[in-house]
Write a structure and sequence with these properties.
By secondary structure, this protein is an alpha/beta fold. Helices cover 40% and strands 12% of the residues.
């Protein structure tokens, strides 16, 4: 039986890590769970980069709706100095507008829901504070940390693709948060290209390295980082940006995160995907809630296998194998039931 069970392990479940158990169920798939995405397209010093930021922001909005099933009301896109006739834009990128959107969206969220922040534009910093440049009063790292406290009951991902983003991001570290920075130091103060490659990672699930038809923040981070390195190498230029990640709450960001040693464990189970009927392709005549619950259960079991493998070195071998076998059998059983629902006659 064990030999058969191990054949059921998808390639994305391979590779054990050695980090402590999570204090609570972060990024747990739930049929009734939802997610909100904030796309914050900040100001830029020049017209060319400002136009690039605009294109990135609109493209990310489209990818979230088409590839990940986000309804427009679950995306907040703030861009420009004033109002816009562009239907995808929720309002200008000003602090008071962001605060208003935060208050409105907070009312729609439950504990365990997910909140994603994508920051694009220009960042500045000195020894005392760092800022995300917007129209009007800029937003400091401490300001943004206060914003995140609003979502203390939710799972949070912040992807800051601006210049000098590292000191800004260092203020955001905390339990249940995945924080990605385009830079590794205050000195990396030039316009970045990380945003474009991170968006490429999400487009049509291009960064899906484990072939589970989903893209985790871990996969997107690795994909974008490699593409940035390749771009500088192809251009024969010295890199002026190095992406980093922190997801264990210690404010120490890793250029080469290793879930066995430091960062990456939460990022591995943090996904953008929604369990919406549109994304799940409900078969005709089949109860949508049934497919949603079953899909959530499968994703929860996959997540459990990830976390179990993280604890492998801390467990007796027999206990580890028994738990793994139990999870994999349950995963195979639920996967078989989902396939059966999709094969029902109309």
């Amino acid at each position: 039986m064990k030999a058969l069970v191990y054949l059921l392990i998808p390639c994305f479940l391979l590779g054990a890590t050695r980090t402590p158990a999570l204090p609570r169920d972060y990024f747990l798939p739930k049929p009734e769970g939802q997610a909100i995405a904030f796309i914050l397209a900040g100001a830029a010093a020049g017209d060319a980069y400002a136009n690039q930021i605009r294109q990135w922001a609109l493209r990310l909005h489209d990818i979230l709706t088409t590839d990940y099933g986000y309804p427009p009301e679950q995306i907040v896109l703030l861009m420009g100095r004033a109002g816009s006739n562009e239907g995808r834009v929720s309002g200008p990128i000003r602090r008071k507008v962001l605060d208003a959107e935060i208050r409105a969206k907070k009312k729609t969220l439950q504990a365990g829901d997910r909140v994603f922040f994508f920051l694009m534009g220009h960042g500045t910093g000195n020894a005392k504070e760092s800022k995300f440049v917007v129209f009007g009063t800029d937003i400091t790292g401490q300001d943004f940390a206060s914003i995140l406290e609003t979502f203390s009951a939710q799972d949070v991902v912040v992807v800051n693709t601006t210049s000098s983003s590292y000191p800004f991001c260092a203020a955001l570290s905390g339990p249940g948060r995945v924080v990605i920075s385009a830079t590794r130091s205050q000195a990396e103060k030039y316009d970045t290209i990380f945003a474009g490659h991170f968006i490429d990672a999400l487009y049509q699930h291009a960064a899906d390295r484990d072939k589970n038809r989903r893209v985790s923040m871990w996969e997107a981070f690795l994909f974008a980082g490699r593409q940035v390195e390749k771009w500088y190498a192809d251009q024969g230029r010295i890199p002026t940006e190095h992406s980093t990640l922190d997801d264990n709450g210690d404010s120490v960001f890793s250029v080469r995160p290793d879930p066995a040693e430091d960062d990456g464990r939460l990022a591995q189970i943090a996904y953008l995907d929604l369990l919406s009927p549109q994304r799940l392709e409900i078969p005709p005549g089949v109860d949508a809630s049934r497919v949603s619950r079953l899909t959530a259960k499968i994703r929860e079991l996959e997540r459990s296998v990830f976390l179990l493998r993280n604890d492998k070195s801390q467990m007796p071998q027999e206990a580890y194998q028994n738990q793994l076998e139990s999870l994999l059998i349950e995963l195979a059983r639920n996967s078989r039931e989902l396939r059966r629902l999709h094969s029902l006659p109309e």
